[in-house]
């Protein structure tokens, strides 16, 4: 029960009391009642000239009460009734307050339970929402893990297949090695037999070398005897008819060649013959990835692929005016040539620099080889005209590179099917382009007035 309800009930009680005592204009007396912690004050009327209690006690009980006495008695009865009613009212009021208090407590408890329930429901809803979001994220992660696991399984399967394939190849290679070992044992026996034959041939070769030395001595004697009366060409035709014997330095129509007492390969058919071949490639059997020293002295076999040597070429071209011819052939059977009327080569101190004039031929409208004087470059001697690159390392081989230029006939030999898009192959730009590796090449010189 609220304070407003208590005040309202007190107001009703006072109003009843005031109505009961209406019309009585007497002196009032205050009465205070104490009930528990609550204190209640009532105003009761009094009659004027009321005799004191002692006097009133003297009045006989048998005599009829006077008006004043009747009023006092009535007032007492009224007070007694009011006290009883007040006591009853207070008890009822207390009981009502207790009941209302219990109801309010129960209401408050119910409201608190309702609020707590609502709060728990809200917390539960938030937890469910958060759990759902976490579940969704876990599902996404699980899907990613499954996808990654599937990819790993596929990769493992591919690796297993590759491993099985490698095992099969290893078994094949093992069997091949065993077969080669058996074959090698047979070859070793043949090699031993060949070594015995070589020893015999070496002893015979020594005798041949002695005979060759005697022959060369005779040749020099003949040269000194007839130089004043006979031309060089006639002398050589009298000495030998071998196409590879080098004696003096000129190749003639009768298939004889002379060059500083060294063997050279002579082309006696192309454009009238008389060509001394200093570069030849046709099967890739000789490695042209050499250093400066080997390009200076030469390498290979004059009957096969070879490079005669820059020093020998310099000595030859120093005897007089020479012409240069370059023979080219591709993998489709097409052939072309480039010819220069004037060819000269400087010594090693000048980097074997080449100078050319008078270009003609079918290997392009213009020369693919620089004619203005380019130094010779190898992987260990960079003499090209490129400031920030080393053409011999990038394009391989030894050549007269002009900022890596349009040609390199000493590049890597690529067989058919692998010769396309090869910048470091055997190329002649104005014949088959910058990335086509040719099948065969031959470079040769002869006297300009031949």
From TrEMBL:
<keyword id="KW-0732">Signal</keyword>
<dbReference type="InterPro" id="IPR020837">
    <property type="entry name" value="Fibrinogen_CS"/>
</dbReference>
<keyword id="KW-0325">Glycoprotein</keyword>
<dbReference type="GO" id="GO:0001525">
    <property type="term" value="P:angiogenesis"/>
</dbReference>
<dbReference type="GO" id="GO:0005615">
    <property type="term" value="C:extracellular space"/>
</dbReference>
<feature type="domain" description="Fibrinogen C-terminal">
    <location>
        <begin position="242"/>
        <end position="449"/>
    </location>
</feature>
<dbReference type="InterPro" id="IPR002181">
    <property type="entry name" value="Fibrinogen_a/b/g_C_dom"/>
</dbReference>
<dbReference type="Pfam" id="PF00147">
    <property type="entry name" value="Fibrinogen_C"/>
</dbReference>
<protein>
    <submittedName>
        <fullName>Angiopoietin 4</fullName>
    </submittedName>
</protein>
<keyword id="KW-0472">Membrane</keyword>
<dbReference type="InterPro" id="IPR057439">
    <property type="entry name" value="ANG-1/2/4"/>
</dbReference>
<dbReference type="InterPro" id="IPR014716">
    <property type="entry name" value="Fibrinogen_a/b/g_C_1"/>
</dbReference>
<dbReference type="InterPro" id="IPR036056">
    <property type="entry name" value="Fibrinogen-like_C"/>
</dbReference>
<keyword id="KW-0175">Coiled coil</keyword>
<keyword id="KW-0812">Transmembrane</keyword>
<keyword id="KW-0037">Angiogenesis</keyword>
<keyword id="KW-1015">Disulfide bond</keyword>
<feature type="transmembrane region" description="Helical">
    <location>
        <begin position="6"/>
        <end position="24"/>
    </location>
</feature>
<keyword id="KW-1133">Transmembrane helix</keyword>
<feature type="coiled-coil region">
    <location>
        <begin position="163"/>
        <end position="211"/>
    </location>
</feature>
<dbReference type="InterPro" id="IPR050373">
    <property type="entry name" value="Fibrinogen_C-term_domain"/>
</dbReference>
<dbReference type="Pfam" id="PF25443">
    <property type="entry name" value="ANG-1"/>
</dbReference>
